Amino acid sequence: MSSPTRPIPLACCWLSLFSLLFAAGNGHAHDTGSSYLILTVRADQIMGRWEIGLHDLDDVLKLGADRNGTVSREELRARFPSVTNYCLSHLKLKADGATRNIRVTDTGPLVEASSKGTNVVLNFVADETSQPKVLELGYRLFFTAKPQHRGLLLLDCNGRRHTAMFSPDRPTQRFDLAVPSPGSEFLAFCREGIWHIWIGFDHILFLLALLLPSVLEQQANEWKGAARFRDAFFNVFKIVTAFTVAHSVTLSLAALNLITLSSRWVESAIAASVLIAAVNNLRPFFRGRAWLVAFGFGLVHGFGFAAVLTELGLPQDALALALVGFNVGVEAGQLAIVAAFLPLAYRSRESWIYQKICLRVGSGLIVVVSCVWLLERAFDLKR
After folding, report:
1. Chosen domain end from 148, 181, 214
2. Which of 126, 198, 298, 330 could cross-link to 100 by cystine, CB 3.0-4.6 Å?
3. Which residues, including other chains, have CB under 8 Å from residue 201's CB and lie 6 or more apart?
4. pLDDT per residue as tens digits for the range 264-323
5. 269 and 130 within one domain
6. Would the CA dihedral through 264, 305, 371, 297 be positive or negative?
């Protein structure tokens, strides 16, 4: 007679979930990399400034001769024509339906430091153009080699601002310069919020570490399955609500530049939060207070969510729209994860597979991964 929890199929489900998370999370967590494009449209000219990560360019074009992960100014200068050709081949501009030639005005490489590393700056103009009514941009930089890469755009037309994010599924976007479209901008940032939480493997593992014991109850130092679905649901509700409220607060504060923290400190603290949440599953010290852990460390995760928005340098009106859209997307992505987790976890809560393998072995693996992240981020180590 088969067990009501059907352990073999459930084991396959959990094994697939953990394999996917740890295989993906073995990379760079949620550091997807971004390039920043600023376009200024005037009556007789379109000017642009493009900030591109030197590390990303080196990965694709192999700029450093000794392949040691660093690129000297001399090496960059020698390969500057290759850099400009590569970048311009992945950026297409149409004004009122007509393709415009883009010409770099720099005679040599310009580099600038940022919180994410060193950027190569390209200044350019679009030849033979007058102020268009409709602008269309095709942006495909790094999308083939780095599908998680994003192109962030700030478009200024006579003081009117437009913002956008380019991705492999949205490489071409059209802008009506006569009529602003806040709705499309909101949806674009909403999509990016969903994508950011889904590829933010440190955020996912933090939530997973908190959610794993949510369908269990501790009795005499042993985990037992929750008696009622309502109890498990309420545990999850408290955790998700606390995490949402906390990261929404710091996401807003950081994106509005009211609080600024070091990117290295924030990323290290996020890794530490994953570690502590997982250790608590193996040796509980936050008994019945997982929602407090979610709230406390959710404040730190909010700064991580805000990084992509603060570095875009949006004006206050556009930033407010981007902030709301991005946060809505994060919540939608988070709820999708919880909706997939809770029914499976509750159904398998009584099985030894869940209590021994998923909770204990899974938490142990999360401990290992988060320790690696913490060391890499705290000491700026590269793999």
Report:
1. 181
2. 126
3. 21, 24, 25, 27, 29, 30
4. 899 899 999 999 999 999 988 887 788 999 999 999 999 988 876 766 556 666 677 888
5. no
6. positive
